[in-house]
Amino acid sequence: MDNSWVIAHGPRLLVQTLIASLMDLYTIKYYRRWIEDGTWIIMVISFSSFVGLNLPTRTLANSIEASLFIIAFYYYQFNNSNS
User: Per the domain annotation, does 18 fall within a domain?
Assistant: First the structure.
């Protein structure tokens, strides 16, 4: 288990996959807050070329940054008043 492949690709396969999964989960939760039937967002995320091409090749820091932004955006309290 102590070879160069595990050291080079282990974080990308394990940690980055978990972080991307959290980002997808909170994206779905955010859209379900605004739209009752938010199941279509799962298809948008699944078939998006951005997700398929960019997220697996991002660095770990960029993936964490994007995930934390989505999570913070989910917990942000929007003011619905017109004042």
Answer: yes
